[in-house]
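PROTEIN DESIGN WORKSHEET
SECTION A - STRUCTURE
LENGTH: 390
TOKENS:
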């Protein structure tokens, strides 16, 4: 895309006179700087809000993970409690079966008779007391076992109900935190979108500043050029006046010397006092007036594509040596159709310098330059009208 580079400064100065009225409505650098400063402050504020939202999201995720761990631990406790309840119920059932067998045996064999028989078989009064005490202890122990099993079952049932209630609350808390997390994610997405918009605005302001700086530089260069040309013309006129005055003084001195020589001569033949004409001196030509841009007004229908110096395959300098980072408003053309260095206007793009060429740019094709690849993609391929301004 890029050819050999050479100076374009004269072309820029030539187009400055045409560009200045077109950019007359452009914002000043002070206003652009003020806008950029305002947007930068807004971006800093959004970044701070984004950081706070990110902290809230991290904290919420930690709480969600903590509740999930509690749910898993509580679920394990519930499962353990269910197992203990099942084992307790089995023990109670076994105890009930044993008691039922004993009740049945009591009804069939009359336990009271057996108790009396066991007491009567005592060898002495001490043995009688021991047997009576032993029977009492056995009966009390069996009764306590059944009672303790029932109490254990009741406690386990109560623990199970409590754990299930806790589990329900934990699940509700997890759902609430997930909802809050989703809201925070939405807030972060909105903040990121706002930050991206601010970044785009800053890029646009930066481009506007580059255009304004280029316009100011072109105006300054044009004024300097005009001042130099005016100073050169004035110096030439002064030099010509000095030469003319010196010639007049020389002619006057020569005439006076000739008259003095004629008056003092004693020769009978009067010599002619006419002095030969002084050789004419060349009169310097006036300095040429500064050239002004010409407008051809030639309009051409073209097919337009776009390229960017941000692409890795391209360089920052055009075929005319323009630095696209400093002056991005450039188009690539076929020199046989549009002369290089011309100021052109492309519909939908604006006024630019025809300052680049390309291997694929042949015939009625114009390749407009953008600072970013995204802008090139948005431009795509389209039909445009190109007007040659100068």
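SECTION B - SEQUENCE
RESIDUE ASSIGNMENT:
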């Amino acid at each position: 895309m890029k050819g050999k580079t050479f100076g374009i400064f004269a072309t820029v100065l030539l187009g400055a006179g045409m560009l200045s009225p077109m950019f007359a409505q452009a914002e000043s650098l002070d206003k652009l700087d003020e806008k950029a400063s305002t947007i930068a402050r807004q971006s800093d504020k959004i970044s701070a809000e984004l950081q706070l939202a990110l902290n809230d999201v991290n904290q919420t995720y930690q709480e969600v993970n903590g509740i999930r761990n509690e749910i898993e631990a509580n679920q394990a406790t519930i499962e353990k409690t269910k197992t203990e309840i099942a084992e307790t119920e089995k023990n109670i059932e076994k105890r009930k079966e044993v008691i039922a067998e004993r009740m049945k045996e009591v009804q069939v064999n009359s336990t009271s008779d057996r108790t009396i028989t066991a007491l009567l078989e005592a060898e002495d009064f001490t043995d009688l007391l021991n047997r009576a005490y032993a029977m009492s202890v056995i009966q009390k122990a069996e009764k306590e076992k059944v009672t303790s099993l029932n109490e254990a079952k009741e406690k386990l049932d109560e623990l199970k109900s409590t754990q299930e209630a806790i589990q329900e609350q934990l699940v509700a808390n997890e759902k609430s935190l997930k909802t809050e997390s989703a809201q925070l994610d939405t807030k972060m997405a909105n903040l990121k979108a706002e930050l991206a918009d601010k970044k785009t605005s800053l890029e646009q302001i930066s481009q506007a500043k580059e255009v304004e700086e280029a316009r100011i530089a072109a105006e300054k260069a044009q004024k300097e050029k005009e001042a130099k040309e005016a100073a050169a013309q004035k110096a030439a006129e002064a030099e010509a006046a000095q030469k003319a005055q010196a010639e007049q003084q020389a002619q006057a001195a020569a005439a006076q010397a000739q008259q003095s020589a004629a008056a003092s001569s004693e020769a009978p033949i009067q010599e002619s006092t006419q002095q030969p004409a002084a050789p004419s001196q060349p009169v310097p030509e006036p300095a040429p007036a500064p050239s002004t841009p010409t407008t051809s007004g030639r309009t051409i229908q073209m097919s337009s594509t776009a390229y960017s110096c941000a692409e890795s395959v391209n360089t920052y300098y055009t075929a005319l040596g323009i630095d696209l980072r400093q002056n991005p408003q450039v188009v690539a053309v076929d020199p046989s159709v549009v002369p290089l260095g011309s100021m052109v206007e492309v519909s939908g793009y604006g006024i630019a310098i025809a300052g680049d060429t390309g291997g694929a740019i042949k015939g009625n094709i114009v390749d407009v330059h953008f600072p970013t690849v995204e802008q090139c993609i948005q431009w795509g391929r389209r039909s445009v009208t190109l007007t040659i301004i100068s």
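SECTION C - NOTES
Residues 122 and 385 are 132 Å apart (CA to CA).
Confidence is low (pLDDT under 50) at residues 2-25, 264-295.
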